[in-house]
Design goal:
The complex is a heterodimer of chains A (about 400) and B (about 230). Chain A is an alpha+beta fold and about 400 residues long. In chain A, about 55% of the residues lie in helices and about 20% in strands. A 6-stranded mixed barrel of chain A has the order 2-3-8-5-7-6, surrounded by 4 helices. Chain B is α/β, with parallel strands linked by helices and about 230 residues long. Chain B contains 7 helices and 10 strands. In chain B, the strands form 2 sheets. A 6-stranded mixed sheet of chain B has the order 6-7-8-3-9-10, sandwiched between helices. In chain B, strands 2-1-4-5 form a 4-stranded antiparallel sheet, with helices on one face. Chain B is about 35% helix and about 30% strand. Chain B starts with a strand and ends in a 6-residue tail after the last strand. Classes of the chains: A alpha+beta (about 400), B alpha/beta (about 230). At the A-B interface, α1 and α12 of A face α2, β6 and α3 of B.
Chain lengths: ~400, ~230
Amino acid sequence: MLIKIAWRNVWRNKTRSLIIILAVALGLWGGIFSDAFMNGMVEQQVYSTIHTETGDIQLNKTGFLLNHDMQMRIQNADSVIRTIQQNPEVTAVAPVTQMTAMISAASGSAGILMNGIDPEAQAKVSDISKLLVQGSYFKDKGADQLVISQKLADKLHVKLHSRIVLTLQTFSGDITYGAFRVTGIYRTTDNDYDMQMVFVRNTDLKSLISFPGSDVSLLTVMLKNDQDADSVALQLSQKFPEIQVQSWVQLSPILQLATGKTNVIIFIFVGIILIALAFGIINTMLMAVLDRTREIGMLLSVGMKPSRVFGMILLETVFLSVTGAFIGVAISISSIAWFGKTGINLSMIAEGFNALGYSSIVYPKLGAGFYIILSLMVIVIALAAGWIPARRALRLRPAEAIRGE
Amino acid sequence: MAVIEVKKLTKTYHETVVPVHALNGIDLVFDKGEFTAIVGPSGCGKTTLLNMMGGLDEPTSGDVLVESEDISKMRPSQLVDFRLHNIGFIFQSYNLIPVLTVKENVEFIMELQHRGREQMNERVDYLLEAMGITDKKNVRPKYLSGGQQQRVAVARALASQPKFILADEPTANLDSKSTDALLDLMASLNQKEEVTFIFSTHDQRVMDKARRIITLEDGKVIHDSKYALKDE
């Protein structure tokens, strides 16, 4: 009976209840959708970083990443690759010869990171081959092919099939030059990456700089599951104590920080919205108690325990809040599902996003666990918000309340 | 047999600078099955006396004994339980629960008493029939006339099978036809159920039906007479 009365009481003043239900629904929708947007953005960045830049795990000589000294190399790479491939979690391993270089065209030059790759193996650890906007990804058999980003091509004023010159240091420390032809142009969502990374065939690069044939600068490893990177990295580092093994988490600590803190930020954000809504709920319920002073006086007079009156007001608050939350969550799930498929195109501010390494199309996303915690938060906030009006009802003296005082 | 004994009851309100003596040492005894009207001018202490007898307010001094049990000494939580099982209330403005139907309003008290479903259904059917509102059992109070609402309030007050019923100006908002009908029903139930009715009223028609009239003035009993029923 108490539940029945509480539920029907919610609908006594439909306008007042609907206003607060709508406020809760829209407030939560705004909060949840913003969180899904932020979460989607971070997850996309993690995916993009792993699948275009770092891979799940990288192996190199300690200190190599600081100055790209080509003497700091992994020797007998084939044997290392074979051992890595024996790990059941590993799906692909790609060798890379990497060094700093100068790229020059008729109208300018730029400092870059030259990557000598095995196109087939690299395609399994990096999405660059899928991010081509012009040309092809080492499709032709011809030598001296080069893939650069759209950003760098624009800076150097080069086009597909343009000839460019690379200035590099040989393995023995001399300076050498190589002429390459632009055969592919890619574009990622990270401006910094695009301005730095240039790809050529490993064989072409090695022969140009006389790099030992069986050695590489680094190895990129992809796993079945990105989340296993730390544990597999640990296993590999035990097998290769002389090689530095780093997971994407270690290679990109800012990303790891963003991933780890996103959930905390999301719940703080939603928590603030819920607290703000709680004041609206308190106001509505206080008005409801004030309107029903006489009725509450009657309930206390005829023998309803004050604790049950208290519980009734709390229940009403929970019903009011949960109804609003249910609607808000339903709208959120629908809109997140919709925009999760179509994406939100922020191309108008894409430059700013790309500068930060984010994609200009964001796909909002939230896990099921979020909604479970959110439901608990709504109930806790509703109980807290109902406490004040319920206490007000509890303090009513039946003889006075029955007269509406 | 005394159902209620009021002994040297006083109540002083200190809401203003000057204390207001609402009740000044009242002594009264109410027997089982009485049909009593407490009358007097506004502010004479009728409602205060009813509140004291109903355990809704604490006396400044004196005692209220219900079947020899002193309710003025009870803790608030004990009083709530006592009221639920021993006292029925009828209010001037009906005070039904607007979100419940007529049937649910009457059942409500019995639910608080944790009565069984079958027992509740039986009692509700009996009372609604006695009050002549069986056809309204699934209707909410706002669709009823004032007289019908007050009949529901009487049914609710009787539902808990109380030792006595306190009715504070129950006919004040009713027209004469509804008042007569309601009083007849209450008088009949008073006889059938042997439940004690104590009214506070200004209404001459209630006084005409009452078998005892107590007149209060300035918080004191100035007149107390018992009358026999015409057919007695």
